[in-house]
Amino acid sequence: MSTCDPTHGQVAGVPWRIPDQRAGLRWFLMLDAATRLVLWGGALSLTLAVFCILSAWPVGSPATGGLRAAWLWGVAAVRFVVLFNVFYVLGLVLLRLPVPTPREGRYELRGRWPGRQVFWSCLVAVLTKARYQPPFPAFLVFHLANLPPLVWLMERVFGPRSQSAYVTEPQVLDPHLVTLGRNVVIGFQATIAGHYQERDAVVFRRTIIEDNVVIGGHAVIFGGVHIRSGSMIGAGAVVLPGTVVGPNEFWAGVPARKVRDLPPLNALS
Prior knowledge:
It is a single chain. This protein has helices at residues 22-53, 66-96, 116-132, 141-145, 150-158; strands spanning 8-11, 14-17, 105-108, 161-163, 171-172, 178-182, 185-186, 191-192, 195-197, 201-204, 207-209, 214-215, 220-221, 226-227, 232-233, 238-239, 244-245, 249-252, 257-261. It is of the alpha/beta class. The chain folds into 2 domains: 21-158, no CATH class; 160-269, UDP N-Acetylglucosamine Acyltransferase, domain 1, CATH 2.160.10. The strands form 5 sheets. The protein has a 5-stranded parallel sheet with strand order 4-6-11-14-17, with no helix packed on it. A 5-stranded mixed sheet has the order 7-12-15-18-19, with no helix packed on it. Strand 1 (8-11) and strand 2 (14-17) form a beta hairpin. The chain is globular. The N and C termini lie far apart (51 Å).
């Protein structure tokens, strides 16, 4: 597509103008803020209600009641934090349930407001942000969302569909479009997406990572990538949309390219 300037384009000989997107982005920020308040306020209110119903607050002041009172208040605070995190994760699941799962495809951004698929994707993105950027005291969201029994709910309702476990939280954007196999190792602050954005459109494509793959820290995997079993992606690499990494290959660089073949895993045993 040829263009005259950054705000104009031409499709089939018909010129068109990319609309001002400020209104949509401001709407997204307002929705993001409202969702955060609902999740935080709901988890806080439910936790306080449970503590009141069960009379779980210790008697006496932790400041003047001595060591025993301080210990009891500390234990109560830990229980409060754990229960708050449980309600927060359940809130993510409940808010995700009524949102239709966006379909794969290329969706142009010509109108002032996006189409339905982009709209559903924005709703999922809001919940994904709330998952990866939880408020205090929801610092256990990663742990609870990746441990039974809540992991079974999160994988089924929220995504990503994964047969692996992690000790660091990878940034999985569009979790409904990301599939991870067994024994996948993902480095610190790696990002895996199920979409990529063109100047005038957003494209949603499934990203598949097969078994026994290692992804280095700070690597970026765009939508539509397929990484086959036994491969490695170097730290800081950027794997472009639609790339297919063959089995037992090592890719690195920006953009990522094949560096060499790796020996099959059964040859290492």
